[in-house]
Design goal:
By secondary structure, the chain is an alpha+beta fold. The chain has three domains: about 130 residues, no CATH class; about 60 residues, no CATH class; about 80 residues, Sporulation related repeat (Alpha-Beta Plaits, 2-Layer Sandwich). Helix content is about 40%, strand content about 25%. The protein is built from eight helices and twelve strands. A four-stranded antiparallel beta sheet has the order 10-11-9-12. A three-stranded antiparallel beta sheet has the order 1-2-4, with no helix packed on it. The protein is elongated, with a radius of gyration of 36 Å.
Length: about 290
């Protein structure tokens, strides 16, 4: 009797409607919603499964699939389907539930057949193993690179280098073109001015060091009591499309954050948009943490 439910699940991977004569039709529909497209999260297409008890006519699709696999006569396949349907209807009349693997569960309320799809549907078999992933916008990547503390430090080092290089070039020009009395027994005014010029150009330039003690503002979406739980939670968030979900150890607690910023205003604006787009994470909050290099 497992032949019939197997072929129902198999046919749903290839057809949008599979009729079980005398019972109803399982109808596949595609999602018309875009999953978090403004956040750059790309997810595989999702298909949904519904049950329509009004469509009961025999279109021959299910019986034909059984005859090809079992080498039954068409009439024998229809008898097998009819026997399977009678068993389902009898079970529903007793108030029990009937589960079709890879399809869902049938049950009855007020003499009406109802259906609840499985979490893992056969109609989504072609998407098996595919998960959502994050593809951040270029403007966000540029902003993170610009605000990174290491980039600020390198910018300061480049400024120092250019100042020293300029001083060396000026000294070289002065040596080549400024006339001085080197063979006389006195120090000429030109020589004195030249020496003062050298002292001025070779002194260490005053460059304000970047403030390496800064703050980061993390958008926290979950807390975990220990590292193992945090790792599992982060992996689950990543499988849901939050590819940037990362563990943060703060004050002895393990927290999961989805993004961080160097500017608090940007973090607050991101949090407002995030809570609006993901109502399930409306309890997300901002953690301020001082960073030291």
């Amino acid at each position: 009797m497992q032949t019939v439910p197997f072929h129902i699940a198999y046919l749903l991977t290839r057809h949008e409607c599979v009729v079980v004569p005398g019972l109803g039709a399982f109808v596949v529909s595609s999602s018309d919603r875009e999953t978090a497209n403004r956040w750059g999260i790309l997810s595989p297409p999702t298909r949904f499964l519904e049950f329509n008890p009004e469509i009961k006519h025999n279109d021959g699709l299910l019986a034909d699939s059984i005859t090809k696999e079992k080498e039954f006569a068409y009439k024998e396949a229809n008898l097998l389907i009819a026997q399977y349907v009678n068993n389902i209807l009898h079970t529903l009349d007793e108030g029990k539930k009937v589960r079709i693997p890879g399809v869902g569960t049938l049950y009855s309320e007020d003499n009406k057949p109802l259906f609840h799809p499985d979490k893992t549907l056969s109609c989504n078999a072609l998407n098996y193993g595919l998960t959502g992933f994050s593809l951040p916008f270029l403007r966000d990547v540029k902003q993170q690179v610009k605000n990174h503390p290491e980039n600020k430090i390198w910018a300061s080092i480049r400024r120092k280098f250019l100042l020293y290089l300029s001083a060396v070039i000026v000294i070289f020009i002065a040596i080549c073109f400024i006339p001085t009395s080197l063979n006389t027994g006195y120090i000429s005014p030109v020589s004195t001015q030249y020496a003062g010029l050298i002292r001025f150009l070779t002194r260490s330039p005053v460059v304000k060091e970047p403030n390496v003690n800064s703050y980061r503002y993390y958008v926290i979406i979950a807390d975990s009591p220990d590292q193992l739980s945090a790792e599992k939670a982060a992996a689950e968030f990543q499988s849901q499309g939050f590819e940037n979900a990362t563990i943060l150890l703060s004050d002895g607690k393990y927290r999961i954050y989805t993004n961080y910023f160097e500017d608090r205003t940007e973090a607050e604006q991101f949090l407002i948009r995030f809570q609006k787009d993901y109502p399930a994470h409306a309890d997300a909050w901002i953690l301020e943490q001082k960073t030291k290099k």
